[in-house]
Amino acid sequence: MPRGRVRRTVAAVAAGGLLSAAAACGGARGGAGDGKPTGPSASRSAAAVATGPSGAATALQLAVWAANAKGSAKAAGVVHDGVYGTDRLKGSQTWVDEVGADVTFTFTDGPVLQSMRSSGQGDVGLARSLPEAFYTGSPVLTPSLRGRHWGEYTPADLAGRAGEPNRHGVVLLKEQVEASDPMFAVGALLTSADVHRVGTRTEQDRVLTGYRGTVSAAHVAKAVAAGGPGSGVLPWLKESGTRVGTFEVWLGPDHLPYQASIRGDFSDGAFLATFTWSDYGAPVRVTAPPASDTWTAADVARLRAKAAG
After folding, report:
1. Helix (H, G, I), strand (E, B), or coil: what is residue 300?
2. Domain around 255
3. DSSP-assigned beta bridge partners for residue 72
């Protein structure tokens, strides 16, 4: 899904209603096609072998093990997309025993925010990610959704097999949720050929050590083919049309990731995301929205087609 194709999503927001607007926010990239967890959790292998310098690779692998031991975290971040604008996200991630995410987005500028406001949706979008489906929604009810807050998208919908016309925008939102997982940047750096230590800094009385590297689809594909990490990052790079991405992650003395940044050089503009994590190991439970409050992707497509007349 080259990003040039998803430019059309912004124009469809107002006509498509709440779910189109919430889905149109671009962001981090991950796969969605076979019903299995294909995002950051796929790169949590203790047997992964890094291609970068051994010292940085060892530190990053320790981060994988440390995160696996905790199983969950709270996430916050700011994402700027050259096409869709800027949003702030806040939520929770869980992995290992259960895989899921519950994230709230607040859009602060750009075409998506303008379209959401013009359709009466406000500034806030919601997302929940589970292995069996991805959900987008809003706390605000609009006529286009006829009394329901959520839309459900299965892996088949996201792959386009169900014919849902706004699937590209929904995938973009799903990818942004996946990038807010602490292992996304770590998994990417484990495939980098030039990953290196960039120094230390102190944040909230915690000394953090930083690691940075560039990542391309070719690097990741080579690592995955060799049985190494990166299976959750490769679809992100391919679908986004990214030529190269620069990833940076800051690890604490307990080896856990506490901060990360991602800079993407896309075929149609720049992408910058910064994330922070806290409350590792806190209980997180992600559930699907009530069926009575949820449209399926096919329902949303019918509503959109009817609204278009």
Report:
1. helix
2. 3-308
3. 94
- Positive or negative torsion for Cα 192, 84, 171, 294: positive
- Binned at pLDDT 50, 70 and 90, residue 144 comes out as low
Residue 166 confidence (pLDDT) = 52
Q: pLDDT value at position 271?
A: 81
Q: Is 296 helix (H, G, I), strand (E, B) or coil?
A: strand
Give the closest residue to 149 by CA, choosing from 10, 24, 295.
295
Of 292, 16, 14, 15, the residue nearest 167 (C-alpha): 16
Contact 141, 133 (CB under 8 A): no
Amino acid letter, 190: L
> How many Cβ atoms sit within 10 Å of the Cβ of residue 219?
24
Instruction: Retrieve residue 201's tokens.
Output: 């800094």
**Locate tokens 């929904």: which residue?**
170
Instruction: Specify the number of domains making up the chain.
Output: 1
**Amino acid 244: pLDDT:** 74
In this predicted model, what pLDDT tens digit does every residue of 161-190 receive, in sequence order? 444 445 566 777 887 898 899 988 998 898
CATH number, position 283: 2.50.20.20
pTM over 0.85? The answer is no
The amino acid present at 244, given as its one-letter code, is V
